[in-house]
Design brief:
Helix content: 40-55%
Protein name: Lipase maturation factor 2
Number of strands: 4
Oligomer: single chain
Largest sheet: 4 strands, antiparallel
GO cellular component, one term: endoplasmic reticulum membrane
InterPro entries: LMF, LMF1/2_C
Mean pLDDT: 85
Shape: extended
Structural class: alpha+beta
Keywords: Glycoprotein, Membrane, Transmembrane, Transmembrane helix
Order of helices and strands: HHHHEEHHHEEHHHH
Low-confidence stretches: 336-348
Organism: Mustela putorius furo
Number of helices: 11
Strand content: 5-15%
Length: 354
């Protein structure tokens, strides 16, 4: 559908959804009022009536206030909204009692998704793009599956693209570390260092461009994205460049002391580094899904192989108490029945039954 068709659909459904919400709230209030009529005792009836009045008034007020930010999604519906709702919302807006829907309710990709593309060069004339593992870059690469992994740097690059680079001071530090060729920072961009275009030697110059990305049309083969250059995001800099040094001083990011040498004698540290080296070829999402699957398999095996105590039934309880009853009755019998006396010499002694 086109943007015009979407706007027409919003005009058609926004006001009816408001009336639907009002009808639902009215039904709930009437239901609460009916329950109040069933309350017995004048004291309980009075307390319940006061409670219903307070909560009902607060609920209706909040509902009316929430209609204003809800109507932001469709301008004509916002204009036709009751003027009293606007006045009430304006009076309590500073309290932030109601807000527009969504964590990011104003989406940034409607006019094209802004993206920052880093570039490096050895001579300042021939530039090579630095491809990230997850964020859009190469227009021929499909979007990767990320869940449940949260790639922090790629996510922050999207936030950086929403404004100038001065709003994201960490970006200047990222440029500095790429010029220095810091391996931990490079691995945040590409886990497979061979895919990093400057893995043999750090770039002499680094710059950044801002593009707008759109998904390609269904008929465009071999391309997932189409993009349009917008502006230069970060100027070309090198180590010792006055612009870079000025930005580092401005944000307090200068290297103040040499990094501490890592001790290699710690057995735990060596073991953790070995585990990280073995797992580094795996994609983060694959590793996380593997760990979740392993935990699930362990739980299933524990449930299947664990000891099970059968539920005790009345019949089992009766069988459990029978031996005690028999023993008690036997003891009572021995006390009640007298010992047999000796008969004549020709008769034998009767054995005592236990």
């Amino acid at each position: 559908f086109t943007f015009h068709q979407f706007s027409q659909w919003l005009k058609m459904v926004t006001l009816p959804t408001m009336w639907l919400g009002a009808a639902s709230l009215t039904w709930e209030l009437l239901t609460a009022l009916w329950r109040w009529t069933q309350v017995r005792g004048w004291l309980r009836k009075f307390c319940t009536a006061a409670q219903l009045l307070v909560f009902g008034t607060a609920t209706v007020a909040l509902f009316v206030i929430s209609l204003v930010p809800y109507s932001y999604i469709e301008p004509s519906s916002h204009g036709h909204l009751w003027s009293g709702a606007h006045r009430l919302f304006g009076a309590v807006e500073h309290l932030q009692l109601a807000n527009s829907y969504g964590l990011f309710r104003r989406m940034t990709g409607l006019g094209g998704r802004p993206e920052v593309v880093l570039e490096g060069s050895y001579d300042g004339h021939h530039w090579m793009e630095i491809e990230f593992m997850y964020k859009p870059g190469n227009v021929s690469r499909p979007p990767p599956v990320v869940v449940p992994h949260q790639p922090r740097l790629d996510w922050q690059m999207w936030f950086a693209a929403l404004g100038p680079h001065t709003h994201s001071p960490w970006f200047t530090s990222l440029v500095l570390r790429l010029l220095q060729g810091k391996d931990p920072v490079v691995r945040l961009i590409q886990n497979d260092v061979a895919k990093y275009p400057f893995h043999k030697q750090p770039p002499t110059y680094v710059r950044a461009q801002r593009y707008k990305y759109w998904f390609s049309q269904p008929g465009e083969q071999s391309q997932w994205w189409r993009r349009q250059w917008v502006e230069e995001f970060f100027p070309p800099v090198s180590l010792g460049d006055p612009t870079l040094d000025m930005l580092l001083r401005q944000f307090g990011l200068q290297d103040k002391s040499p990094p501490r040498a890592r001790g290699s004698g710690n057995t735990l540290a060596q073991a953790l580094r070995w585990i990280r080296k073995q797992l580094s070829p795996l994609e983060a999402s694959t590793l996380l899904w593997g760990l979740l699957a392993a935990v699930g398999a362990i739980r299933v095996m524990q449930a299947l192989l664990g000891p099970h105590s059968p539920p005790s039934s009345p019949l089992a309880k009766e069988e459990k108490h029978r031996p005690a009853a028999r023993k008690a009755s036997g003891a009572a019998g021995r006390q009640a029945v007298p010992a047999p006396e000796n008969c004549s010499s020709g008769s034998s002694q009767i054995p005592r039954r236990k």
